[in-house]
Design a protein that fits this description.
four-stranded antiparallel beta sheet, 5 helices
């Protein structure tokens, strides 16, 4: 087995460093065009992900409200960064943060839209079960409520009491 020369190793390390860090591999302060471009790209991606999710929750379109459109926006941002030859480290971080935001936005958007529309209602709880895998000290329960269309809905609830005679819950929980 031959040992590569110091010049070859140095060249390979320089190539690897340039591939991982891209145009951010320099000494000193970042050029303003890179800073402004990064801020604009990040704000556009976050605004697109959140905006599409809120629009989907507001209009009731499942593809937008469920987060799929946000994932497409995160993938488009990563593709844009690859096309402008950003470093792989930046592309990976941006893609990871975009996917996390796209997965966290739907529940928050649904809550905001429901609260804005004033649709927080109380409903009679029909049954309560301990969430599987939940430690008893956390006290998380799954409550079943019957929706306006007669469909049974399972959701999390905190305060549920059971009547000892009927073993059915006697409290109400927010429906929404």
């Amino acid at each position: 087995m031959t040992v590569p020369s110091q010049e070859v190793v140095s060249h390979l390390l320089a190539h690897l460093r340039a591939a991982v860090w891209g145009p951010t591999e320099f000494v000193g302060a970042s050029p303003w065009r890179l800073v402004v471009g990064g801020v604009v790209t990040g704000c556009a991606a976050a605004g697109g992900i959140v905006g599409l999710t809120v629009a989907g929750a507001w209009t009731g379109r499942p593809a937008l409200a469920g987060g799929e459109a946000g994932l497409v926006c995160a993938a488009a941002t990563a593709l844009y960064l690859v096309l402008v030859r950003a470093g792989r480290a930046l592309v990976g971080i941006a893609a990871l943060l975009g996917v996390c935001l796209a997965l966290q936005a739907p529940p928050a958007a649904a809550g905001v839209v429901l609260a804005e529309r004033g649709r927080v209602q109380f409903a009679e709880v029909t049954s309560v079960e301990r969430e599987s895998g939940s430690p008893k000290d956390r006290g998380r329960n799954l409550c079943s409520v019957v929706g306006a269309d007669g469909v049974r809905i399972w959701r999390g609830c905190k305060d549920a009491t059971h009547s000892p005679e009927t073993r059915s819950p006697s409290s109400t929980a927010p429906k929404g």
